[in-house]
Each structure stands twice: as C-alpha cells, then as structure tokens.
Amino acid sequence: MSIFESLQQYYDTIRFHMPGHKGRELHEPYGVSKADLTELAQTDCLHRPSGMIDQAQRRIAQIYGVDKSRMLINGSSAGLLAAILSGFSPKEKVLLPRGSHLSIYHGLMLQEMEPVYIYPDAEMWAEAYTVTMEDILTAEKEHSLAGLILTYPTYLGTCADIKKIVGWAKNNNKICIVDEAHGAHLAFCEDYPVAAERVGADIVVQSTHKMLSSLTQSAMLHVAQRRVDIEKLDMYLRLFQSSSPSYLLLASLEAAVNYAEKNAKKIFEKIASARKEFAEAFADGKYFLWQPQTQYDYAKWVIGIKNTDLSGTEIQRQLSLKKIEAEYAADEFVLAYCGIGTTKDDIINLIRALNEVQPIQKKNVDKAKRTCLPAKAQMSMKEAAGQRTEYLFVREAVGRIAADFVVPYPPGIPLLVPGEMISEEIAQVILENIESKKTMIGIQNSAMKVVL
User: Fold this and answer.
1) Which alpha helices (DSSP H) does 65-101 contain, by range?
2) For residues 351 and 281, is the Cβ–Cβ distance under 8 A?
3) Nearest Cα to 151, choosing from 172, 125, 181, 194?
4) pLDDT at position 1, please?
5) Is the pLDDT of residue 177 over 90?
6) Are residues 382 and 109 in contact, defined by beta-carbon separation less than 8 angstroms?
7) Across the chain, which distance is largest between two alpha carbons, in Å?
8) In contact, 409 and 103? CB cutoff 8 Å
9) Which residues pair with 408 in a beta bridge?
10) Same-fold call for 59-252 versus 263-367
11) CATH code that applies to domain 263-367
C-alpha cells in the first residue's frame, strides 16, 4: 500500500490528534487537509520507519540503484547538513567549488571544517563552473583532504566528469558527497550525463521538487557506498528534520519517483530534442542556447542573447508580463528550467514570447553576475559568527572581517562567508548587486555585519 493510499484510510475519521484543522477545509488552500495527518497506527514514523515509509524508501533505493535512500521533508539543505556532519570529522579539510550552495557552508561551519576552495576562471560564471581532475590533484598536493563536495549538475546545468572523480575518491579513500539538487531526473535519462548515484558517490542529495514533480521542500538522500555510517547519518537527519514530518511531502515524494520511473525517460528525451527546434526558431541569431564544452544537462536552457539591445533581466520582465516566468536572468542570458511537467506547448509559447520581446531599453552590463571572487579567511566561520559585531555601510566595511554570510539570491552562492576579509573588489560587487535590486541575504539597508 502506498503512502497516499494509507493516508486515505483516515479521510473520514473524527480527529482528536494533530494537526488542528482535523482534516477540514477551514480556509485556503483547499484540497489538502484530509491527507495532512500525524503519526498514527498506519502512517509509520519517518525517524524510525518500519511500515509504509520504510517500504517507500526501499523501493526508491531500488529505482535509483543505491544501497539506501532517505526521504527528506526539510529540503536538500537538511540532507547536505546531515551528510557533511556524518561523513566528516571536525577540523578536517574538504575540497569544494566556491560556487557551492549556502547550505554546504552551513554544514562546514557547524562541523568546524576547513574548506579548500576551487575558484572558477575569471571569465566563467560561478554558477556554471565544473570541478576538474586537475583541480583536485592540484589541491591534493597542497592539502591533506578528507574528501570533496561536488555540485552536479551546476545551477546552469554543466556537469563534471563524475565517473572519473568518484573513481579517484574511492581509490584514495576520500569521502565524496554530491549536491545533486538539480539532477534528480538524471538517473532516468540515458542520453543525459550519468547520475552521481549510478557511479557510486558516497552520499547524493537531490531536490526532487526542482526537476521532478514532488512538492516544494521535499527531497531525497541516497547512500551508494556501504562505507557510509548509516546510523550516524540517520541521527543527524533526526537533528535537521522536523519531528512532525509532513505526510503530504512524503506522499508526493513517493508519487513523484513512481511517475518518473514510468515517464521521465520519454519526457526528457523530448525536452532534449526540443533544443533543436529552439535553435531552428532563432537561426537568425537573436537568441541561442548555450552549449558548454563540458557535459551538460539538456533540460537547463541557458538562453543567450545576441543582436538585441535588451538585457536578460529585461527579457525576463517582459516574459513575466506574458505569464511566462523564467528561473533566473543575468545581463547575457535568461535561464529556463524544463522539468518533468514541461510540455511542448510551454516551449512553443516561450519561443513565441521571445520573438515578441520589445527592445525598449539599452543593454547594460550586469557586473553583479560576478558571484565568486577570491576572499581571504582571517578566522573560521564558526569563530567569526560567535564574535561581537556591528553593522557598517558596505563601503565603510572594506578591510573588516565579515560576521555573516553575504549571498546574492538566487542561486544562493555566498559572495562572503563569516571570517573572510571584505576587499575593495568584493564591496564593489555587493554595491552593484544592491544597485541592481538583487535579493541579498546578509545585507540590511545597504549595511553588513562585521566583527567588532
């Protein structure tokens, strides 16, 4: 019996248990309260599963071809935190691209680990940088690494040579954790880059809601290597996940994986083929689909702009007026995510709307896309976060030590982490982000927190 079928048994009950709505539609959103239950005889317990949740997790592991799978109701962030704290010991060094997601930095801070960063080339977007074996071997010569944390695929869809990197990690007894938040679909797609769990990465974390069809905040964690201490991992998952899990999220996770097993291959093949139709529609060169030299995810459409006076952010604004919402935009591109629910009509409407974009303003260089500048650490993240602090305007903060994360969002990649020196160049990029009205975590009224 599936999780959703188990929940349906309780639809007609009189409820003297949590949650307080008792299964009644008291207000919007309607249609969900009946399945919003608590731990009952037939609903199992996420943190000690032995019934329907255990069965669902076993089936998910079988579908993804891994040793163990865990359903997450606090997003990939909870999975990454648990993976880092269970996979590494305090004070160890770990290699990661500077363009990693904020949640990874949170894990390193909690475990008081020393990050060894790989910075992208100056001409590359941090969001698209892929780690190479050369990066890893160079870092290994200079540092005693306990392992590495990879982002695969990146926010813009580029993919490292995951098979070679995981093979190196195994041969050298290094822990390899993969943030596959944007790649839950890869395991079902033969012609796409191989999924990290398929090549034996130790722990792989996926945001199932990003490219597949589960509800937002639902995610999965896969253990592909038996050397992972599963009991320790489960302990940290209890620490970072709610003790009152949402059965709606659990049911949607199970249903999303079942749907993907039956349909994802065909859907993502069509999405890959539609790239050719897009190229034909814009053969005149007004737009183009970026195709990096590395492997890449065909469902991430980085729509480059040529022969137009418009910026990507202006194109995004005009698309929004036509009820078409893009994932992200910068000066030189618009990013469209084609997930499992994307239809041919969606793509046709996107092409039509792009053709109708009006050149009403000049294109300005968006320097704020630079989100991965080198920064020098003066103290550890945890030490800096525990200091007495004050707020200074960004220009006045140059030469001081950051006491908080500064993160342009999306995609959630830190420009500064606690303990790093605020350079003139970084301050300038922060100011450019503020001027561009970017959402900036860690900035309050053009001021930032620094160590006193």
Assistant:
1) 75-87
2) yes
3) 181
4) 87
5) yes
6) yes
7) 65
8) no
9) 440
10) no
11) 3.90.1150.10
Q: Residue holding tokens 């950051």?
A: 402
Residues 6+ apart with CB under 8 A from 164: 133
- Pick left, alpha or beta for residue 323 (phi over 0 → left; psi -120 to 50 → alpha; otherwise beta): left
β-strand partners of 391: 449
Query: What is the topology classification, in CATH, of domain 368-451?
Result: Ornithine Decarboxylase; Chain A, domain 4 (3.90.100)
Q: So where are the chain's domains? A: 59-252, 263-367, 368-451
Start-end of H helices in 241-343: 247-281, 312-321
CB 216 within 8 Å of CB 173: no
- Collapsed DSSP state (helix, strand, coil) of residue 449: strand
**Which CATH architecture is the domain 59-252 placed in?**
3-Layer(aba) Sandwich (3.40)
Non-local CB neighbours of 188 within 8 Å, separated by 6+ positions: 260, 261, 264, 265, 268
Task: Tell whether the model's pLDDT for residue 361 goes beyond 80.
Answer: no
Predicted model pTM:
0.92
Residue 155 CA, chain-centre distance (Å), reads 7
Helix axes 312-321, 344-355, angle to 10 degrees: 120
Q: Are strands 93-97 and 114-118 parallel, antiparallel or unpaired?
A: parallel
Which residue shows structure tokens 């929940």? 7
CB 248 within 8 A of CB 215: yes
Closest CA to 287 of 237, 351, 230, 193: 351
CB burial readout 72-88, b (16+ within 10 A) else e:
bbbbbbbbbbbbbbbbb
Helices (H), ranges, 182-311: 208-211, 230-240, 247-281
**76: pLDDT confidence band, cut at 50, 70 and 90?**
very high
Task: Tell me whether strands 175-179 and 203-206 are parallel, antiparallel or unpaired.
Answer: parallel
Residues whose CB is less than 8 angstroms from the CB of residue 445 and which lie 6 or more positions away in sequence, other chains included: none
DSSP 215: P
Token pair recorded at residue 109: 């801070």
* 77: CB partners within 8 A, 6+ apart: 101, 103, 106, 240
What are the residues whose beta carbons fall under 8 Å from the beta carbon of 70, sequence distance 6 or more?
A: 57, 79, 220, 221, 222, 223, 233, 234, 237
In this predicted structure, the answer to whether residue 86 has a pLDDT above a threshold of 70 is yes
pLDDT at 321 over 80: yes
Contact criterion met (CB below 8 Å) for 229 and 86: yes
* Dihedral angle of Cα 337, 338, 341, 346, to the nearest 10 degrees: 100
